[in-house]
Write a structure and sequence with these properties.
- With 735 residues, the chain is an alpha+beta fold.
- It has 27 helices and 21 strands.
- Strands 1, 2, 3, 4, 5 and 6 form a 6-stranded mixed β-sheet that branches. The chain has a 4-stranded mixed β-sheet with strand order 13-15-14-16. It has a 4-stranded antiparallel β-sheet with strand order 19-20-18-21, with helices on one face.
- Helix 10 packs antiparallel against helix 11.
- The protein starts with a helix and ends with a strand.
- Bound molecules: manganese (II) ion.
- The site of manganese (II) ion (MN) has 4 residues, from loops.
């Protein structure tokens, strides 16, 4: 560390800045009289010293920016954590102060908020591909665990927009665009009408300077007459309402530049045709008086048909409430009237920020509940909140609890369900990327394929040509897209194997019946396919491979003159080795003779283990089941002899096979120990052991699942166990 930061600690704070801080203190003291403001001063001094060597583009000392951000927050009567975060928000990003130091000095709440704002500042909307505004807004909100982070970020953005003129034009455009597409809509969603309006007008000014200039000029040229007009209306309204004994505060407003611009553009009209260019805002004391006021307005001026809107009965999605109407004066001028209560007014202007006030004022529980409903709706809260007060006091939110947003290395933003894994992501990019996915990097680091994605991660998929998906992946994926793609691949793959097996079965049976497939007439094949409802020969082979039809049956139709369906041997001679060619695939250490990569599995009924005599059986649709020759099911299954297929144990293998033993014993101490010693001698592991006494003789039975290398080892173990004193009987359990 150099010595300059220490020297900076003693750099004097400019008078103007010190004064502005005193104003902040006064503001907060007034707004929140019960809060201890020691931390506020500490934060200000800390931030001043760390930013002291920096200047803004405007030439002001840097601290002026966080100080103004704090003012914007204090104006909304937000709490100390918010305002302090405003003062500290740029320290981590711009001065290298560590988050740990901030936490240690100002506590976990402030630390968490500063961390949140820093993370949001690092998101670069402008570099995301095709600038997906909706997804980016969701990502931003999904990253936030404390709604105060969003409020500080909005205040930060507002001040940056107010001082945007000092930046180079290219940067102005970028920031203005981000503001228009991301931050103004977020402010709208949070009901913060005032900040939203200012953000929109400022963006408009920098994005379309000429249009902005034009509209400004039009507003200015009408300003004097507009204001006179509004003043006259105000007097009329105030008198009418006073007569009716309705308390009211009347404000006049000229529509904002960006709103006028949007309306003119959308409706292709001139500025004088904008019916709500001028508006009166009437703020009264109760809902009842809102409607009474509406009645009086309509008795004074003629309403424009179809322009009456009751947002009190039907609030907007962000819970904006007011009555709107447009009326026409005798001279034919239109203006809008907005009628609302004080409370609705605060909500319209400050939205979510209004909560802090209510929280402090300790209003009744039912009002709190209303606020809760509002907040819940705002953030699309989808889970039950056990205790609304608790929720408000912690201010912890999960704005998009069901979703997670991650970037591709090219900056494209992809939204996935929570719990999604890199495999989901890979399939979201492209099916082929999914199929060939062998690994993933998150933010440059290798992560397991089963890991869950986190908001804002930059994900890179590692692929390998020729890699294929595994059905195990079905347990790892969360999206239906990935699930369907994997399933589809697995099924297609199975089908290819079935075709292969079908052809082999047909060839084998043809040899046995001494007919030559080479002599098969194409028109015969076509006809037989039609008979079986198979569009193509491949479909027929697949059906054979799945065991749907028997090869003999098909052959007798293919060669009606050579084969009769009756008088065939009831049972074939011992099965031939199917075809030639090297057997290579090993599943459970099994090989189907002559067919590469065939679908083989150990039948659950007998669970054959290496070394046992085995036989394969083409099942209906599941490939080849391998049974022990001694399995009682084999006799029953083998009546369709053409489905029988030769299989053998692969020559070498270090696989272990699970096998279950039932050991009937006479109970005695130390018996289990003796049994496990047998296994220790064979270096065999026990997967599970259980004992029960439910047989009629009352002898306990120990059920033990062990993993053995082959049947010889199993035989040795069974024999050794049978020699253990008090062991009555040892059998291998089926299944
Ligand atoms: Mn800032």
């Amino acid at each position: 560390m150099s010595t300059s930061p220490v020297a900076a600690d003693h750099a004097p704070i400019p008078d103007a800045v010190a004064l502005r801080f005193q104003e902040l203190e006064a503001k907060l003291r007034k707004a929140r009289p019960h809060e201890d403001l020691t931390m506020l001063r500490e934060a200000f001094e800390f931030a001043s010293s760390r930013h002291s060597s920096q200047k803004r583009k405007s030439g002001e000392p840097y601290i002026a920016h966080p100080l103004e951000v704090a003012h914007i927050l204090a104006d909304r009567r937000l709490d100390r954590v918010c305002v302090v975060t405003g003062l500290l928000h740029d320290l981590v990003e711009d001065t290298g102060v560590s988050l740990a130091e901030i936490e240690q000095r100002f506590g976990a709440d402030v630390g968490g908020c500063v961390d949140g704002v820093t993370k949001l500042s690092r998101l670069d909307y402008y570099s995301t591909e095709a600038r997906q505004a909706e997804n980016f807004r969701k990502l931003l909100l999904a990253m936030v665990r404390d709604i105060r982070v969003v409020l500080v970020k909005l205040a930060d953005r507002l001040h940056n927009m107010r001082t945007l003129e000092f930046l180079p034009p290219e940067k102005q455009r970028r920031i203005a665009q981000e503001t228009a597409e991301i931050y103004a809509p977020i402010a709208l969603r949070l009901g913060m009408g005032k900040i939203r309006g200012e953000l929109e007008d400022l963006s408009f000014r920098f994005l379309e300077p000429e249009s902005y200039q034009l509209i400004q000029e039009k507003i200015e040229s009408r300003r004097e007459s507009s204001e006179d007009f509004l003043d006259a209306l105000k007097i009329v309204v105030a008198n009418r309402l006073a007569e009716a004994d309705i308390p009211v505060r009347v404000e006049g407003r000229i529509k904002r530049a960006s709103s006028i611009h949007n309306k003119i553009k959308r409706q292709q009209i001139a500025i004088d045709e904008v019916y709500d260019l001028l508006a009166l805002r009437l703020v009264t004391d109760s809902v009842k008086n809102c409607y009474a006021t509406l009645g009086l307005i309509h008795s004074q001026w003629r309403p424009v048909p179809g322009r009456i809107k009751d947002f009190i009965a039907m609030p907007r999605p962000n819970l904006y409430q007011s009555l709107h109407t447009s009326v026409i004066t005798d001279t034919g001028q239109t203006f809008e009237v907005q009628i609302r209560t004080e409370e609705m007014h605060r909500m319209a202007e400050e939205g979510i920020c209004a909560h802090w006030k209510y929280k402090e004022d300790r209003v009744g529980a039912d009002v709190d509940d209303q606020r809760m409903a509002w907040l819940r709706q705002l953030v699309e809260w989808q889970q039950e909140v056990p205790d609304p007060n608790d929720f408000l006091s912690t201010l912890k939110v999960d704005l998009y609890p069901e979703e997670v947003y991650v970037f591709t290395p090219q900056g494209k933003l992809i939204g996935l369900p929570r719990g999604a894994t890199p495999i989901d992501f890979a399939y979201a990019i492209h099916t082929e990327v999914g199929h060939a996915c062998v690994g993933a990097k998150s933010n440059g680091r290798i992560v397991p394929l089963r890991s869950h994605l986190r908001n804002g991660d930059i994900l890179e998929i590692i692929t390998q040509t020729g890699h294929t998906p595994s059905s195990d992946w079905l347990n790892l994926v969360k999206t239906s897209r990935a699930r369907n793609k994997i399933k589809h691949w697995v099924n297609t793959h199975r089908r290819k194997k079935a075709e292969e097996i079908g052809v082999k079965l047909l060839e084998k049976e043809a040899r046995r019946l001494r007919v030559s497939l080479k002599k098969l007439r194409p028109e015969n094949l076509e006809k037989v396919c039609r008979d079986y409802g198979c569009p193509q020969a491949a479909d027929l082979y697949a059906a054979l491979g799945y065991g749907r039809y028997s090869a003999r049956q098909v052959l007798s139709k293919l060669f009606p003159d050579d084969i009769t369906t009756s008088g065939q041997p009831a049972r074939p001679k011992s099965a031939h080795t199917v075809s030639s060619g090297a057997a290579s695939d090993k599943v459970d250490g099994l090989v189907v003779t002559g067919i590469d990569d065939i679908l083989v599995y150990r039948a659950g009924c007998c669970n054959p283990i290496r070394g046992e005599p085995i036989v394969g059986y083409v099942t209906r649709g599941k490939g080849v089941a391998v049974h022990s020759r001694s399995c009682p099911n084999v006799e029953n299954l083998m009546y369709e002899a053409e489905r029988r297929i030769d299989v053998e144990w692969a020559r070498s293998g270090d696989l272990l096979y699970k096998s279950k033993l039932l050991i009937e014993v006479s109970d005695r101490a130390g018996l289990l120990n003796d049994l496990t010693n047998v296994l220790t001698d064979e270096s065999v592991n026990i997967s599970s052991v259980e004992s029960r006494t439910n047989n009629s003789k009352g002898h306990p039975i120990i059920e033990m699942t062990i993993a053995v290398g082959d049947v010889k080892q199993l035989d040795r173990i069974v024999n050794a166990m049978q020699r253990v004193p008090d062991v009555r009987h040892v059998v291998r359990a089926a299944g």
